[in-house]
Amino acid sequence: MEKKLRAGILGATGMVGQRFISLLENHPWFEVATVAASPRSAGKTYEEAVGGRWKMATPMPEAVKGLVVANVNEVDKVAESVDFVFSAVDMTKDEIKAIEEAYARTETPVVSNNSAHRWTPDVPMVVPEINSEHFEVIEAQKGRLGTTRGFIAVKPNCSIQSYTPCLAAWKEFGPREVVVTTYQAISGAGKTFKDWPEMVENIIPYIGGEEEKSEQEPLRVLGRVEQGEIVKAELPKISCQCVRVPVLNGHTAAVFINFEKKPTKEQLIEKLEGFRGFPQEAGLPSAPKQFVKYLPDDNRPQVTLDVDYENGMGVSIGRLREDTIYDYKFIGLSHNTVRGAAGGAVLCAETLTAKGFITHK
Ligand SMILES: NC(=O)c1ccc[n+]([C@@H]2O[C@H](COP(=O)([O-])OP(=O)(O)OC[C@H]3O[C@@H](n4cnc5c(N)ncnc54)[C@H](OP(=O)(O)O)[C@@H]3O)[C@@H](O)[C@H]2O)c1
User: Fold this and answer.
1) Rounded distance from Cα 8 to ligand 1 centre (Å)
2) Is the pTM of this model over 0.70?
3) Under CATH, what is the fold of the domain 159-334?
4) What letter would DSSP give residue 205?
5) What spacing in Å lies between the alpha carbon of 93 and ligand 1's midpoint?
């Protein structure tokens, strides 16, 4: 790309916002033109506003340190300075819905990490390897919003990324019933051990709203576009328990599954390893070369060894074996703030750019 697209980050000072800043350092297509956060941070430099809250393992990029933080609520001012925005603000659901729509109406595409619009019928919710064709629904959304280039696209919840790719890869065998337990990292709550000491040596058996997302969102990702809306898939039926565990980064899922047509273990592994989508075909900058890796060792995937597979954009699967009640069981692992949050959104934005939905203003 000759001239980079100017990206704005709404909620740039938060955990996910910082991950966007890190991932976009030296990005070949996008540059961070504007950082925006709450009125508390507005007017300060990015370095001052973040202060001691920088949570990434790599240092804050020099290019953003001196940027003056804008107020997320000053929509027209922010929109003027960017070609599109990533959204990772922490506000109420209604406030997020309204502000993301306000940005879209200024003809600014919004690629959101938030859950507010995940069930808006004409907003696509995409894992680019699985359902990039859902972006087609944007034309209907633009009709509703009365825009020519402004729209909202979202990525799904971090918890589903460790098992939904398997359901997509195994589609032809007809996944029918799925029982999942997720073991979720504390960064999914925007926390580190320093600011959540109660999590050291602890397990908390409740994450508000997470089980419903983990049961329902895969069905929307596996659904189809019909008359300008996303229609969710009816199967598989999914039952999920979500547990917070003392891990910094990496959501693990333990999964049991029944199929319409029971495949062999070899067939299942072959489908996982061969699973590719638009990002691989198009050679997008953040696309993992191999989206899903199968690990044959009994003690894998492990968070410390496998969470950064493909720079945190790949999914690791292991321990696939026959079960005594279900057809099979297995373990999945993905990086919750990379593939599950900012990285997944960056890959959506790359897909939208390659498909011509995000352009220079
Ligand atoms: N962490 C994850 O892995 C993850 C995964 C998926 C989705 N999410 C979702 O992504 C969003 C951000 O999560 P996070 O963990 O990054 O949260 P966070 O660390 O608390 O950051 C929140 C960001 O929103 C801004 N903000 C807060 N209140 C605001 C207001 N009233 N008006 C405007 N801006 C406001 C903050 O600005 P100030 O610094 O100025 O306060 C900050 O930039 C949340 O909705 C969360 O549910 C998080």
Assistant:
1) 15
2) yes
3) Dihydrodipicolinate Reductase; domain 2 (3.30.360)
4) S
5) 12
